[in-house]
Amino acid sequence: MHLLINKLADMKAIALIRVSTIHQDLNQQTDAVIAEIKKDGYSQDNIILIEEKESAVKLDEESRLGINRMKKAIEEDAAINAVYVFELSRLSRRPDVLYSVRDYLINRKIQLIVLKPTMKLLEPDGQVSQAASIMFAIFGALAEQEGYIRKERLARGKLTKKVQGIWAGGNLPFGYTVNPKTRAIEVDPVQADVIRRMFTMYVVEGKSTGEIAKYFNETGELQSCTGKATVETARSAIGHMLKNPVYIGEKSWNRRGNKPVENVYPPIISEELLEAAKKRLARVKGNTKGVKKQSTNVYFCKGIIRDKFGHLLTGFSVSNTYKYVATSFDGTKYSIHVPLNLTDSLVWHFVKEYRKTHTPMKLTDMRKEAKKELAIVLKKLGNAYKKIESYKSQTVKINERIVKGRISESVGDTMLDQIDEQMSRVQSDVVEWSITMQHLAEMIDKIDRGEMINPEYAQTDAEMSEVIHNCVKSVEVEPTDNWGKYDYTITFEDNSFVMFRINSMAKTARNLLTCEKIEFDYMERFLRPATKRNREKKENND
Q1: Are residues 474 and 500 in the same domain?
Q2: Domain end: 254, 286, 318, which one?
Q3: Does the predicted model carry a pTM greater than 0.70?
Q4: SS in 3 state form for 219-262?
Q5: E strand or H helix at 186, and its extent?
Q6: Cα gap 15→150, rounded to integer Å
Q7: Is the pLDDT of residue 320 over 90?
Q8: Which domain holds residue 38?
Q9: What is the reported pLDDT for 475?
């Protein structure tokens, strides 16, 4: 632990001098700081001089680690009890680094003395000076604002270079190169020839992207663009290039402002050729074959309706009629076809009656599952926020390395841009997971408020199906001796049940337990194709 002792010959002080060799006189600052140290009673032999000469072009290798040299000296010599600087900005122009140095000195009870404006970090009792706290806050805010201005200045500089056709760093599109003398973006004649042949093969000759990829994969002419020379990587690269507007010299995107910068790249092909390629790409994409058709039919009893042998009935169209169908698997010729619309209508009728007096126990399981999924989403969000904080920490460290001269500004800016891209992707995930979290929370809330157990809230086929599956264990169907008549048993989650017989020909039903006729709403959700065509024809005639 250091003691705050002024004007003692056996104590040592550090003179930290950081200047720009272009704009400031090193000797002038050094003389002023050393004079102040001697004035406070330190001898010449006990003054440790650390000079850091910043150059706008390149930092001197000897002086890159000025602040680190200061820390090393303090940690190796317990006699050091003070650090002198000419101005507060000489510590750092970046607020994160400035506060880091401040805290380092406070923790070790090292006095910091600033000549302009006059300031002492610590009071005689070792506490932080109020005036110093105010000055650090003001200077930190000014330094932060200066950093923003500097970053925007750099961005404008890059944008200006792009507008002027000057390479500002990053990857160039295939077909272009950089003039080593002028740094101007120029057409690569060899790669440009590949681009022109590619567009000709696709638009004029009518070759597919796969055929073009195979051709250039064999010639190896795209390997510098695709890396590993495979047909798939080449095909993917070709698909992007065939619609890339840079090849007509039209634009390159300014990521920060999301605005196009025009006439950055010299044109390689005509605008007409690019538009023709884009139109064919869109046409091919729209006519893609072999894509599995997504069914939108919702069968209420799917997964829960079985015959007396336990065979699961599947809903689909048989003889142009939607039915639940099952065939025995024991080698017999037994099969069963039951009308889908009639079955679903009656099951929905009994479920509504059941739900008037019963709360589905499956909702409890639904709530548990939703809570489980919610916990997973919250964990993902937590990890995402940790990543964002990590990216912020990396940003601080990179800025510190730039300030200390460990890396150049151009390298640092490239690293910061990469971190910005990574952070943007994580932030997109955060948005998606936040939406999922909200959905799950709303589901739990609906269950708690009883909205999900009220049939009135079921408006769509999917919602009605969900209601049925929440409270029905099984639906068993058995043909009777009379043609077109079937006996059903609906078993609910609490093991209560209801039995009824339907007449599929007359679309009627009666309760087998009470022998009463069942009044229900018949839902004709799926029509025979012929019936559907006739109805549409009639509607058109009307």
Answers
A1: yes
A2: 286
A3: no
A4: HCCCHHHHCCCCHHHHHHHHHHHCCCHHHHCCEEEECCCCEEEE
A5: strand 185-187
A6: 29
A7: no
A8: 12-150
A9: 93
